[in-house]
Design goal:
The complex is a heterodimer. Chain A contains 3 helices and 4 strands. By secondary structure, chain A is of the alpha+beta class. Chain A has a single domain, classed as Glutaredoxin (3-Layer(aba) Sandwich), CATH 3.40.30.10. In chain A, a hairpin with a 2-residue loop joins strand 3 and strand 4. The radius of gyration of chain A is 11 Å and the shape is globular. Chain B has 3 domains: 9-86 and 153-196, 2-Layer Sandwich (Alpha-Beta Plaits); 91-148, Alpha-Beta Plaits (2-Layer Sandwich); 199-475, no CATH class. Helices cover 38% and strands 12% of the residues of chain B. In chain B, helix 1 crosses helix 14 (349-358) and helix 10 (254-272) packs across helix 12. The chains are: A alpha+beta, B alpha/beta. Chain B: It holds the Pfam family Fe_hyd_lg_C. Chain B: Keywords: Iron, Iron-sulfur, Metal-binding. Chain B: Residues 90-120, 121-151, 168-197 form the 4Fe-4S ferredoxin-type domain.
Chain lengths: 80, 479
Amino acid sequence: MKISVCVGSSCHLRGSYDIINLMKENIESRHLEDKVELAAAFCLGKCTDGVSVKIDDEIVVGVNKENFDQIFKEHVLDVL
Amino acid sequence: MTIKKFDTQVQYLEYKVLREVARHAWDDTLVGSFDAIAGNIVGDKPTMRCCIYKERAIVAQRIDMASGGHKDNPNVIEVLNIACDGCPVGGYQVTDNCRGCIAHRCEDACKKGAITFDENQKAHIDKEKCVNCGMCAKVCPYSAIKDYQRPCVEACKIGAIGMNEYDKSAKIDNEKCIACGACVYQCPFGAIMDKSYILEVIDMIKKSENNTKYKVYAVIAPSIASQFTYDSSLKLGQVVSGIKALGFHSVVEAALGADMVAYNEAAELAEKGFLTSSCCPAFVSYVQKAFPQLKENVSHNLSPMATISKKIKEMDPEGKVVFIGPCTAKKMEIRLDTVKPYVDSALTFAELQALIDSRNIDMTSLEESPLDNASYYGRIFARCGGLADAVAEALLEQGVTDFQLEGISCDGIEECRMALLKASKGVLKANFIEGMACVGGCIGGAGCLTHGPKNKLEIDKYGKEAKEKSIEDAIKHFR
């Protein structure tokens, strides 16, 4: 699975670095390094709905610290 | 020109040609459109030259430059020989201010016996004997002796401009030229221009089919904060939206690349003990051409432009990257083998303005788009002294305490020459040279729309607006 967190200006201002940190922490603590490739992307084109995250071919918008756990479960853990 | 977008009428003229060429390129009507463009720019009566035929011939040369210039000339800076007015090469001349005094200090000062006096005691310089030392001018109590240099020669502090004997037009020595563009900005007739690659950018955007075939990224130099200030209602965020409206997928700050450079350069400096910066392509080119013995002391880091573009290409290998900045020398840098894989084309701010107007985009009517990738330190690279500040910060953030930074920030190529000269003799009292070919740094670049006294403040203000306050915070996810 490839996860790209948008680091374009809009998402950056909305905290994409926090999301990258949470991704890194979760991937590490759950030992998913072999299954998940984490990357950054300069703009996923959903600037008004960030933070945007592309998980394989699906773009998930509106990711924040509060809903991160649920999104990670639904779109990453349940899919793997 | 209702709003003054440029410093000079020459810039405005070059802009008009670029804009018209771009308009035809978007419409695929450029071939055979010379008459239309020339007619649009040259009226029924001459306003700039002796006749409309000469004006049209010059427009033809400008269209050539707007379309990429002469492929057989490796330099991106070229002389338009028809536009060149062949200014007099006077050297030292006695002006009307000479009062015919009786002291004749000029005569005493001249070691070559080149000064004579007429029946009114007024001085004359024998050009056969004069060696242009300037001693007579220095001693004249009335400042009546003046050095008349061609503006291009005066602008080129590294002596790369000479003269063609056959028509007295300016000639650029490509072996010496560092493509800084000082002559481009200074020539009062607009007879020296940088080649424009607007056509390849337009082609790149069109073929991307709205960024569906591949994405086109704009990497924007931090000096943009000092630009597009001609209309006080126009916000930087609207300029970013304007760039996107042209067809770019995303706009990324080159300053984020600058953060990465500062971080790596600090480590490289601490390791090697003496270094020059590598951000300014004209400075790097100058070191290679004029001080080859110091070549190895130039930082091995890519420039901020190339560094961030490399990251973009790593994330999106199919993507195309266009740098937009104040710099003509970047157009040379992107041809280097080390940079070519990462940057597909380079534009100046003046060309960006022409492209935006060629699409009739009214930036003031657009919603603002944010532009925030870099830290304060990456952003202040745009002004002289900023790079050294950033390297000092990076040393601090990396906890390097056993190395004391002694930086010298060289403001313009003349100061660079002095520092390099001292370094080559081993007498420079510094271990880091920040080399900026343009006076003021990038904000003094030839590709800027305007050059104002407040530009430095604009850069610092823009720097402080960055979300990330430290270099480490800005780059931690990119290492």
